[in-house]
Amino acid sequence: MKLHTLKPAEGSVRKKKRIGRGQGSGRGGTSTRGHKGAKSRSGYSQKLGFEGGQMPLQRRVPKFGFKNLNRVAYKAVNLDSLQELSEKIKGSDITIDTLIENGIIGKRDLVKVLGRGELKAKLNVTVHAFSTSAKEAIEKAGGTVTEL
């Protein structure tokens, strides 16, 4: 047995410092809560973002602009994406289900086809909306456009 190998017996040393167990423990009396005030009372909980009476950051920061609660947000899919997809699936029909299966859009997304890129394949596209340039490009390639 050597001094550097000595350890206390299993279970004889407490990990957590117990508070509120009398003056002899060194953590009695106020039980590490200080004197008076809301934080010393039981049941105290601070509001989220409370800064001690100082004006909270959320209220100090200037707000501007307008958020339309009724706006319709479309997920944009471009012609070059449709071209890649048609080569991948080797089919001419592209619907919402096709786009969901290939991970291009989410289940609840509204889709709008935009006109970036070139379309060489003849596609029958069925989605919620089209830009005029995308509609022209699909019809020019010999495909059809159907809005839901």
Order the strands across the largest sheet as they lie in space: 1-3-5
Number of helices: 4
Largest sheet: 3 strands, parallel
Q: Taking all residues together, what is the mean pLDDT?
A: 91
Percent range for β-strand residues:
5-15%
Q: What integer value in Å does the Rg equal?
A: 33 Å
The helix/strand class is alpha/beta
What is the N-to-C succession of helices and strands? HEHEHEEEHE
Give the total of beta strands: 6
Helix content: 10-25%
The unreliable regions are none
Shape: elongated
Q: How far is the first residue's CA from the last residue's CA?
A: 83 Å
Question: Any overview of this molecule?
Answer:
This protein is of the alpha/beta class and 148 residues long. It is 20% helix and 15% strand. Strands 1-3-5 form a 3-stranded parallel beta sheet. A 3-stranded parallel beta sheet has the order 2-4-6.
What's a concise summary of this model?
The protein has helices at residues 57-60, 79-89, 96-101, 132-140, and strands at residues 74-78, 93-94, 110-114, 124-127, 129-130, 144-147.
